[in-house]
Design brief:
heterodimer, A: alpha/beta, 6 helices, about 30% helix, about 15% strand, globular, disordered N terminus, B: two-stranded parallel sheet, 3 helices, elongated
């Protein structure tokens, strides 16, 4: 217990860099520049989940509104790892090496399906700054431009796909190496 | 006929999605498709019915002892490096 606390107190990771589209070498240099050891968390092993039973039950009445029906469907679809299992997922994230007491969490696209990163981010907020850096949120489909949860949720949104400063978007310039033509 | 509501239930019993990935797969599944269809029909025709949903899952990731032992060594190395 004491040893564990000692290790935690000495933890030097203050910047969580997760799924950063920079290339691994640049990411390692960035970590060293920030005075911390590079993270290997993109290739973490699948830890066994504790045995659990998840049960949900809900009832939809005759005259329930569309809103109630939508909540009914959301209850079906909500992943266990982010709802009832939030604590278990967070513990698993910490046991895999995710840092506590962070100052900044920076990612390009981990807000989508990486549940360990998501719970670790939620737990760190609001004392940590949530920074997203990406080309833009098009994902290859322009219709999603108006739906940009990472832009709405982040404290700072850095883009190398948008030009000019608008609506909280900070045009950051190209940080990925340019593709070389043959 | 006597004005009392018809007590009819649509029962849905599905598995609880474990992760966000599972939720995406579940969203594209036939089970959810038929659930949404049923709710839409119920709403469109104003059917006096109730729907009850139960989800239940039990995750007990059982592995072979050999696999578990090999992974535990590799996992331990990883965790030590990471921390």
């Amino acid at each position: 217990m004491c040893r564990s606390n000692f290790r935690r107190d000495r933890q030097i990771t203050r910047f969580s860099l997760l799924q950063v589209i920079l290339g691994e070498v640049r990411k390692i240099f960035l970590s060293l520049f920030l005075g911390q050891t590079p993270s290997l968390l993109e290739v973490r092993p699948p830890l066994e989940m504790a045995h659990y039973v998840a049960s949900r039950e809900s009832l939809l009445l005759e005259r329930d509104s569309t809103r109630v029906e939508a909540l009914f469907l959301m209850k079906v679809l909500a992943p266990w790892s982010l709802t009832e299992g939030f604590g278990a997922t967070l513990e698993r994230a910490y046991s895999l090496g995710f840092a506590r007491n962070l100052s900044v969490i920076f990612t390009s696209n981990s807000f989508d399906t990486d549940d360990e990163i998501k719970v670790h981010l939620v737990e760190a907020l609001p004392s940590a700054a949530y920074v997203v850096g990406q080309h833009r949120n098009n994902y290859g489909i322009s219709k999603t431009t108006e739906i940009c949860p990472e832009r709405n949720a982040s404290d700072l949104f850095l883009s190398w796909g948008w030009g000019g400063e608008a609506d909280g978007i900070h045009a950051f310039g190209q940080i990925k190496p340019a593709l070389k033509g043959k | 006929m006597n004005g009392s509501p018809i007590e009819e239930f649509y029962l849905f019993s599905v598995a609880t999605p474990e992760s966000t990935d599972d939720s995406y797969i579940f969203l594209a599944s036939e089970e959810i498709g038929s659930l949404i269809e049923t709710l839409a029909v119920r709403r469109h025709f104003e059917l006096p019915s109730r729907a009850r949903l139960t989800t239940k899952s039990s995750y007990a990731h059982l592995e072979s002892d050999e696999n578990k032992a090999r992974k535990s060594v590799m996992t331990q190395v990883y965790l030590n490096v990471q921390k």
